[in-house]
């Protein structure tokens, strides 16, 4: 080691000693990539995805979040999401790139953990205060009793301040705008119990009710936590849509191609989109031929031919050949951003729905407050004793505290959600069951919802073995959806590919090769000299012989026919609204017995149709899975999306269908009706309880402690009634 490289002897800290004397070049930062994985559903999926990604050269670490269905990857700077997506697709998992910068702006939800922590504090404090109360009940008197009361106060006051904070915040938010909610009487009951207890303790009274205040807080927090656990916390669908946009693009300049952030693109820029890439902006094709997959945006199942002059929209996928597009709309002006705006508007409309619990609070809270105030005034005028009047007023507030009403909804929702989860449905939104019970109209999307979204070969038996061998060899040279379906069907039938020469793909048209000296082609009708009919088909041409079609149809999703029939039998009107072609939509509607259908609908058309039905007084259930469905899903009275849907569609929906089978949808409507009936029964139970208990409290026969025990009994009764749904 040379003397020049030694650290200075005057360095006083290890950090300075360890620092090199000569500056070094800054190492490029690792790339942080985010991938959406809509198809993962279990621990095995997590292990497989992480193993495949970590085995990829250049990847340093990969972690999968099953709840968010997302993978976060740290890799070398030159690694791109486009390099990792094929790796996962070969392993059998659908993957899409997300903009990590957009996702970092979304705050992680901590509601569940916060509620659980407050619940634990309330439970621990109530147990300790109850032990002290037992000592008082056992005969502790005078100074000993006072000491136990002051210790209880020291435990209770900070515990209530922390644990009951959600109730205080919600009550203040309501009072500040001049309205009442269920938390207002809850807060008054807690505060009055504390005030009464402190009053009694300061006067060396025999009774304090700190345990009643803590028990009340504990029960109510348990109800809130139950409510939270019944659903996945929905993130903003608009943010998810933004995260699905392509974060980078290849811009053409005089010096060649340069990779830039999409935010840097301007109208008029020339952009290169490689096969398998997603369009970063709206634009027009200036060079190249290919085919576009528009299924996520429009619902069209058949790829669209793309050539110079054809307009493209952000989010469409380029399938077969490189394209050069000229940007005509960028940033917030793109079609994908306009769709995000539609979703945001629709979500704000749904938030105006008033839950049954809030409706009950509007009637319940004023009555409770008036009754407690009248009790205080009446007993004060009767006894001229503030202490007695305050005790009775506190007992009235506690015994009428809406703990049973607060549990009425979450207890039923938990039982109903558990039953539906076992059937393959996950309830996300707090009021989804209440809204589902009101549904009288069901709107289905077609591609990916009623159908599997993948083509299925229907006329394999109409072709000779030689044709099938040639077609298989040609199909395996392409990643076109029809080619993949043909390859799958032929392989399952035991067909072996023919030996071909000069095999190559012609972007936008099909595949071509030489077989025994003759030219063979598989692709578009016009390319092989055939006439395209109404059916979806790939055409095979062998030499100069007449071209023969391989016909495809969109396979029905399991349970689609049964679900439509069950909903119609239950008296609900069923509609089919799709962005697919008129012929495809009409054919599917005929297969399923749906009399009302709309084809070639744009995303805004779907949302407008839902809004029109809502204006007519219809309660609409929307079932969809694509980006083109997100605005309609958010605008509907209630919505369902399959687990196979993209993140944006799942986030915009209230209920997620975990399996492939659509049959549980009809049962969910029935369970929702019965759940709503149970909720109303629980409200009636709480009302009858109050009719019996309130006169006793007003007459002075119930101390605040007895009132707390009575309140707990009503809560248990409500919970047992809810369990009948299971």
Q: Briefly, what is this?
A:
The chain has 726 residues and is α+β, with helices and mostly antiparallel strands. The chain is built from 26 helices and 26 strands. Among the domains are: 31-98, 2-Layer Sandwich (Alpha-Beta Plaits), CATH 3.30.70.100; 246-333, Calcium-transporting ATPase, cytoplasmic transduction domain A, CATH 2.70.150; 423-452 and 556-673, 3-Layer(aba) Sandwich (Rossmann fold), CATH 3.40.50.1000; 455-555, Calcium-transporting ATPase, cytoplasmic domain N (3-Layer(aba) Sandwich).
Report the uncertain regions.
Answer: 1-27, 231-238
Largest sheet: 7 strands, mixed
What is the CA-based Rg, rounded? 33 Å
* CATH topology descriptor of the domain at 423-452 and 556-673: Rossmann fold
Which structural class do you get from the secondary structure elements? alpha+beta
> How much helix is in the residues?
40-55%
Q: What's the CATH architecture name of the domain at 423-452 and 556-673?
A: 3-Layer(aba) Sandwich
| Order of adjacent strands in the largest pleated sheet | 14-26-25-24-15-22-23
Count of discrete alpha- or pi-helical segments spanning 4 or more residues: 26
Q: How many beta-strand segments?
A: 26
Q: Please, what is the average pLDDT?
A: 78
CATH class of the domain at 423-452 and 556-673 reads Alpha Beta
Write out the CATH superfamily name of the domain at 423-452 and 556-673.
HAD superfamily/HAD-like
> Distance N terminus to C terminus?
76 Å
What spatial form do the alpha-carbon principal axes imply? elongated
Percent of sequence in beta strands:
15-25%
Membrane topology: Multi-pass membrane protein
Family: Belongs to the cation transport ATPase (P-type) (TC 3.A.3) family. Type IB subfamily.
Protein name: Heavy metal translocating P-type ATPase
Domain HMA: 31-96
